[in-house]
Design brief:
With about 220 residues, the chain is an all-alpha fold. The chain has a domain at about 70-180 and about 185-190 and about 200-210: Cytochrome Bc1 Complex, Chain D, domain 2 (Orthogonal Bundle). The protein is about 45% helix and about 0% strand. The protein has helices spanning about 5-30, 40-60, 70-85, 85-90, 100-105, 120-130, 145-155, 160-170. Helix 6 packs across helix 7. It is elongated. The model is unreliable at about 185-220 (pLDDT under 50).
């Protein structure tokens, strides 16, 4: 190694150490506002977004969605669990923003709006959650088959209006995933457990079959 090369390496090492010390000093100073009512700076937000997306893609890349994601029984099961567990943050057709959804940062996405849908990514996020985001790891109390049910429902959610959403939830088994969930979330046969109904037991859906209205049925 020549003298010039050695000096260059030392210079790079010193600069890297100095940069590290600046970052450590800034973090330790408490100057960065971590409050949820204050947005991240653009560099921090971009870094966290990239970290999240790459982490999910790497870990979900080997997951194979089941072949029955278009099965109505699975979709109905997912509808009941989504309504009971997810609407407080992720809303739904006809559901206004809640105190929780307005207070979280980054804001949880409204999943009733069409967006990129990658079943394996959604499954991984529901099962494992996301650190420091408010998204819990539902896999600690919910079996994989029930998580795939929510994924199956999410695939259909952007196609539903408020009436079809309520009908599908009413036709479901309510909050039921075998994880010791509270009985107060269960729906009875009249749909009385639906916490979005307007006091009416008569939800309009195909009572004979329990199927989704034709315009919202998944393609086979």
């Amino acid at each position: 190694m020549t003298l010039v090369t050695r000096h260059s390496s030392i210079t790079v090492a010193v600069l890297a150490l100095a940069a590290l010390l600046v970052v450590v000093g800034y973090v330790w100073s408490g100057s960065y506002d971590i409050g949820a009512d204050s947005a991240h700076t653009r560099p921090v937000y971009s870094m966290l977004e990239t970290l999240r997306e790459r982490s999910i893609a790497t870990r979900a890349g080997t997951l194979q969605p089941p072949a029955n994601l278009n099965d109505m029984a699975l979709i109905r099961q997912g509808a009941g669990n989504y309504d009971a567990m997810c609407t407080g943050c992720h809303l739904g057709p006809g559901i206004e923003p809640t105190e929780l959804s307005r207070g979280l940062y980054p804001a949880p996405p409204n999943l009733s709006k069409a967006g990129e849908f990658v079943p394996s990514h959604h499954f991984w996020v529901i099962k494992h959650g996301i650190k420091a985001s408010g998204m819990p790891a539902w896999g600690k109390s919910m079996g994989d088959e029930y998580i795939w049910g929510i994924v199956a429902f999410l695939q259909q959610l952007p196609k539903l209006d408020a009436a079809r959403y309520k009908a599908l939830v009413a036709s479901s088994g309510g909050h039921s995933h075998g994880g010791g969930e509270s009985d107060e979330h269960h729906h009875n046969e009249e749909g009385a457990g639906n916490h979005h109904q307007d006091g009416e037991a008569d939800h309009h859906h195909d009572d004979a079959t329990g199927e989704m209205p034709p315009s919202s049925k998944p393609a086979r």
